[in-house]
Automatic annotation (TrEMBL):
This is Amidohydrolase family protein. Keywords: Signal. The keyword Signal applies. It holds the Pfam family Amidohydro_1. The keyword Signal applies. Residues 349-410 form the Amidohydrolase-related domain. It comes from the Bacteria. Residues 1-22 form the signal peptide. Transmembrane segments: none annotated. It comes from Chitinophaga pollutisoli.
Amino acid sequence: MKKIFLSILGLTACLATLQAQETVYPAKAQKGLVFLKNATIHTGAGQIIERGTIGFNNGKIIAVGANVPIPADDVRVFDVQGQHIYPGLIVTDSNLGLTEVESVRATNDYSEVGDINPSVRSIISYNTDSKIINTLRTNGILIAQIVPEGGLLTGSSSVVQLDAWNWEDAAYKTDNGIHFYMPRLMPRSNPFGAEARGPGSDAVKAAMERIESVKSFLREAKAYNDGGKKSETNLKYASVKGLFDRSQKLFVHCDLMKEMIIAADMGQEFGFDVVIVGGTDSWMITDVLKKYGIPVILSQPHSLPVMQDDDVDQPYKTPALLQKAGILFSISNEGFWQQRNLPFNAGTAGAYGLSKEEALSAITLNAAKILGISDKTGSLEVGKDANIVVSTGDILDMKSSVITRAYIQGRELDLTDKHKQLFERYKHKYELQ
């Protein structure tokens, strides 16, 4: 009875919190020409256009440049002089919309029981009413990759745009990849000095056995999908067919050098398009990554390095080392609410070796390439979706970045969020002007 009471109390508190949040409705489809002029335009592909103009119609960019003619009739023109225009920022590797309050189990829907669950589709669990979404849009984040967790092969991720009534509306690219969370190939100790899982060699051996079980599953799936007509459908085998025809990518979550080498070997054995997620030690094997064309999603750049003898600021320097080596990479922050800091994580990389435009590309065009959506978004180019952010200052700088306008497929967004609501509430309470 006590457990039931506490569960009801927690759920009630959660619902009360949600009800206290702001109401923001998805915007209607764009109608008519819109032009933004006199801004510094950062295309996301390394180009900067001073006193530039961008125009869009029916959700698509129709003009970008310094001397763009603006029609005289039936057009809305906004003078954003002194401000900066960017492509909408893109989050990779997030459980946004799959969880709301971490401590309330009823709001968490990002994992399944069992190790092998490739048939799980994260997109159908995506909650477009999550109040976290609005806090990301306020910082210029308009696109996100929604990733399942739990087990080894956890299911398929999808890419969503952050202005929708339901998951069908939100879907930007569905089932773009299967996710493999590789067991850590490093012995771990408990606080009392004893090995948490027995001798170190046994812990690594157990991890290797789990990795081999995934390979065995993939070999069986290949045989199944290469076969002819089936008397019965095996959902788990069928769900990874896209890996073999390369319509999906295998996102391998790992950090250590030897783990990434195993991921590269899997790509060669099965002919997969592999993406490393995490990649803490990726700077140590850039030759391997470049040889096999493996991109990297760097997670948690504001964290300590894995190995004690690494430089304490190594996570800050890794993006520049990958850039220098010619490795395609993006930056992520894992989790869901933490993603609002994505532009500032990229800004840190800009202070440790990347140029500002390279840091911007890491969370726009590079991310779009990795997710397979660069034909639609990631940069400000004619023909692409009008996913546009306007900021008073440098979007990578926490002190100067204030997002004044944002558009997804040409629809102007309401940038209200819970943070702003609370700011106004307590400013009123304490009579602050």
